[in-house]
Design a protein that fits this description.
20 strands, globular, 3 domains, four-stranded antiparallel sheet, alpha/beta, sialyltransferase cstii, chain A
Length: about 675
């Protein structure tokens, strides 16, 4: 039998001798230590399967097959199979992903101008661009299936990849490979300190494996160089189908949402005015645990069915309204104990203004990210601000690690769930956290402003993915919601060991959260006085004054650091000649410098703030520059495009610098800085 459907000759086999088994056990133990060092979770899973098993059979000289599920996995030697497969893969180039041509309308103005300048100059110079990549290299190599791993070194050599991502849903196969393959040797060549990346994705759910894959690429040093990515399918499995569909569909979606310069400036702008305002509290993590319950209320469609149950128990549990769910709660006579916000977009402020026209929301304590619209804080009397790590505003204004709400993205319900955990609630109930819908045309609860015709809003997220639903059957969702689900599950695994989670939403099933119909809720410890408990929580958050802000903010320093950031990236581009390889190295170095911080800003305050400001826009421009570079086929055109890319990328960096310099200049003088200035130049 071949490897999951492959038609190959079945060679005669013989069992390994004692010497071979001893060598296999030694290598197994060595590999186990390697995985303990790089990934404790995978190490634990491997260790749980026990010692090396007698499931390898010798085929010829120095080759083996694996007996898997009672049958030969390859039907020939693993090395022979791998060599044949790799040779065919490279001969046909069938696994190469070529990006769609960049479109000017898909980019913000500053990136679009760079793109059009490159294209015009290339057209004027009569450069010929090919439909697909003209070289054989691939920055990324995605391998679907580890099997016995014999194919991995050859693939790494052929592609010259700097990042390898191995997707293996069957832990038993990885466990078996520890007996014959030197994982330490492979992992050692992908040294992160030298600009390489090694990743292993082992989520058994294919959609969540895709979420993991997307997260890996987005957070690596160079997410801009997806063009030419290689996908190698070692064996056939349904698990790999959605991954291939994503990669061969529109690979650029994997890095969508990295941000752009005006969004980053907007978030710094909002944080500046929110904190300069004073008259607020700063969130403090790790409050003492309590025995009480919290209702985390999102605005998914199923909220309509649970309003009565929430009202019935609202007197005995803390009610946290998340984003637009405040509207249906107040319309139903339920006053939240805390309101949670995280988004910086002006639409959320406008939504709250509509709610404030019908209800007095001023007495509800607001728990908001530092980056929300400044007008939002004026609607509430009691405001607590939290920080999100990975944003420039965190590094600029945060008083310390304790002030961040960890893992509170990507949506406000993530923030609400984490907040409930951080303030010590023991039992946490989720309502309206549907993350999709059983019906494709429903996206929010009926009584939210989105469905009341009060907002200029059109839903653009097709619910095309089918996933197990909380109460059985299937629910429709999309990739963005799967990221929300994945983050909730991570937080529960990481910090929820002593807590109980219940999902009353009729949406996606969330691992680690017990499905519970709202009619079956039984509050174990009723809160005697919710007002007293809420005040106790709030009083633990330290006050933040305008004087404290003035001690933190240093506009002159930021102007200086912005200049250093510009100089560093221009230096990368001009470090060598205008030769093709020198310019390509410059692009790689810029991308590395932008991405190294990746949600983990260093404490030495060198260039991280400004790099974060530049990151999203620069990633888009780098992707375009790389696309043009790798589609020139002769030396003359390569020399021309290298010169064009270096010139235009230098101009682009100068434009980024000027935008940030002007922005900082407006904040240096508090008398001229106005909170009403909202950047919207996308």
């Amino acid at each position: 039998m071949g490897c999951r459907g492959a038609q190959l000759y079945v060679a005669p086999v013989r069992e390994l001798g004692d010497q071979g088994e001893n060598m296999g056990r030694k290598l197994f133990d060595k590999n186990l230590k390697v995985f303990r060092k790089i990934n404790p979770d995978i190490h634990s899973a491997l260790k749980s399967l026990g010692k090396a098993k007698k499931n390898l059979v010798s085929i010829g000289d120095d080759d083996w097959d694996l007996i898997h599920e009672g049958k030969p996995f390859y039907g020939t030697g693993a090395k022979e199979f791998a060599n044949r497969q790799v040779s065919e893969f490279w001969k046909t180039q069938s696994g190469r992903v070529n990006m769609h041509p960049p479109q000017p309308g898909n980019h913000e103005p500053i990136v679009r101008d760079c793109f059009m300048s490159m294209l015009k100059r290339a057209t004027d110079d009569q450069i010929t661009f090919f439909e697909n990549r003209c070289d054989l290299r691939s920055y990324y190599l995605v391998v679907l299936g580890s099997g016995m791993a014999e194919h991995l070194p050859a693939l790494a050599d052929l592609t010259e990849c700097k990042s390898i991502i191995i997707v293996e849903p069957d832990i038993r196969l990885l466990h078996a490979s520890l007996q014959n393959f030197d994982w330490g040797g492979l992992i050692g060549r992908f040294d992160r300190q030298k600009g390489f990346e090694f990743n292993l994705v082992m989520n058994v759910d294919p959609q969540l494996a895709l979420v993991d894959l997307r997260s890996i690429i987005r957070n690596q040093r160079t997410p801009s160089f997806l063009d030419g990515l290689c996908v190698f399918e070692h064996y056939q499995a349904d698990h790999f189908r959605p991954i291939k569909e994503q990669l061969f569909g529109d690979c650029s979606n994997l890095v969508a949402g990295l941000g752009f310069i005006f969004d980053e400036m907007n978030m710094v702008h909002n944080s500046y005015f929110n904190l300069r305002r004073g008259k607020l509290r700063i969130f403090q993590s790790d409050l003492p645990p309590n025995k009480y319950s919290a209702f985390v209320v999102g605005s998914g469609p199923s909220l309509d069915n649970d309003i009565d149950a929430i009202r019935a128990h609202a007197g005995t549990a803390l009610v946290l309204s998340c984003g637009s769910s405040i509207a249906p709660l107040l319309d139903s006579g339920i006053v939240p104990d805390f309101h949670i916000e995280c988004e910086n977009v002006i639409e959320n402020y406008e939504m709250l203004c509509l709610v404030a026209e019908r209800h007095d929301i001023s007495k509800i304590p607001l728990i908001a990210g530092s980056t929300v619209h400044p007008g939002m804080l004026e609607l509430f009397d009691d405001v607590t601000v939290y920080f999100r790590r990975g944003l420039a505003s965190y590094h600029l204004f945060s008083p310390g690690e304790w002030s961040r709400l960890a893992n509170c993205t990507p949506t406000v319900t993530n923030a609400g769930t984490v907040f409930a955990m951080e303030v010590g609630c023991k039992d946490i109930y989720l309502f309206g956290v549907d993350l999709g819908s059983r019906e494709s045309d429903k996206h929010h609860a009926a009584s939210t402003p989105y469905n009341r015709g009060e907002l200029d809003f059109e839903w653009h997220m097709p619910l095309a993915i089918q996933m197990p639903a909380n109460f059985g059957g299937q629910s429709r969702t999309h990739a963005g919601y799967l990221e929300v689900k994945s983050m909730i599950e991570f937080v529960i695994r990481d910090r929820g060991a002593d807590l109980e989670f219940f999902n009353c939403s009729d949406g996606l099933m969330i691992d680690g959260v017990t499905p519970l119909h709202s009619a079956d809720i039984q509050i174990r410890d009723a809160i005697a006085s919710k007002q007293t408990l809420a005040n106790e929580i709030l009083n633990r958050f330290p006050a933040y004054t305008n004087d404290q802000f003035e001690l933190v903010w240093d506009g002159e320093r930021r102007v200086s650091k912005n200049r250093e950031c510009r100089d560093l990236m221009v230096k990368f581009l001009n470090a060598g000649t205008t030769q093709y390889n020198d310019v390509m190295s410059g692009l790689f170095n810029i991308s590395d410098s932008l991405q190294q911080l990746s949600g983990n800003l260093r404490e030495d305050d060198q260039l991280d703030v400004e790099m974060q400001m530049y990151r999203g826009s620069a990633a888009q421009a780098l992707m375009i520059a790389h696309y043009f570079m790798v589609r020139t086929g002769n030396d003359a055109d390569r020399k021309k495009i290298a010169t064009i890319v270096r010139d235009e990328m230098t101009k682009f960096i100068e434009n980024l610098f000027l935008k940030v310099d002007e922005f900082y200049g407006g904040l240096v003088d508090p008398k001229t800085a106005q909170p009403s200035t909202i950047f919207d130049e996308r």
